[in-house]
Design goal:
The protein has 217 residues and is α+β, with helices and mostly antiparallel strands. The chain has helices at residues 8-15, 19-22, 56-59, 64-78, 87-110, 113-135, 137-152, 158-175, 183-198; strands spanning 3-4, 25-29, 38-40, 50-54.
Length: 217
């Protein structure tokens, strides 16, 4: 279904990412049938790369600047670069997913159906909680603001980056057929509208996630 990326257009997106995560991200050409224009692909805790499938047809509806800022933001969110000191999401939930997955294999070898069920329940609960932590308003806003600060240090003004991110996000929502917005989306849009007019406040460290602290830009 997916083809390994090898186009200069996708490579341009990779090269605009912070150096901390540049080697961790891969892009593949997706299809018009995929639900999201930029679709994160499943990543097991032990896998090295964070992979995305981009639908080239809908993706071309964005300008090159919109593409760069939007993909930057998606990569920052997916790699947890902007999750800061949220140790529960960074360490506990992935550890529980790994423990639950390992438990399933162990219990399968022992033929213990109850143990398999408990291990599967643990892994499923951890996946749900991790996804909620990553998708919550606080995490989404942190990813937006991190991307804007990074873009402001790499050729854009903060106001310009916020406006590009907002317009790209709204356009992609239309391309994905989303007509309704929830509370979190409304607050995120208002924050981006504010940033597009006022910019960001005092600079924050680019590497908010402790696991990237020792890597230099």
């Amino acid at each position: 279904m997916y083809t390994k990326y090898a186009t200069p257009d996708f490579e341009r997106l990779i090269q605009f990412l912070p150096i901390e995560i540049r080697s961790e991200v891969q892009v593949e050409a997706g299809t018009e049938e995929q639900k999201r224009v930029v679709q994160p692909l499943w990543r097991f805790p032990w896998q090295q790369f964070t992979r995305f499938a981009i639908d080239p047809v809908r993706w071309q509806r964005l300008t090159p600047d919109q593409q760069k800022i939007y993909f930057l933001r998606e990569a920052v969110a997916a790699t947890e670069l902007a999750m800061g000191d949220n140790w529960t999401a960074l360490l506990l939930y992935p550890a529980l997913i790994g423990a639950g997955t390992m438990g399933i294999f162990v219990e399968m070898q022992m033929g213990d159906n109850l143990g398999i069920g408990l291990a599967a329940g643990l892994a499923a609960s951890a996946v749900y909680l991790l996804r909620r932590a990553e998708k919550g308003q606080k995490a989404q806003t942190a990813a937006d603001e991190f991307a804007i600060r990074y873009a402001a240090q790499n050729g854009y003004s903060a106001e310009q980056a916020a406006a590009l991110l907002l317009s790209a996000w709204q356009q992609i929502e239309l391309l994905q057929g989303k007509a309704k917005t929830d509370y979190d989306s409304t607050m995120r849009r208002r924050n981006l509208e504010y940033l597009s007019q006022r910019g960001v406040g005092s600079p924050a460290p680019l590497s908010l996630n402790p696991k990237y602290q020792r890597k230099e830009l």
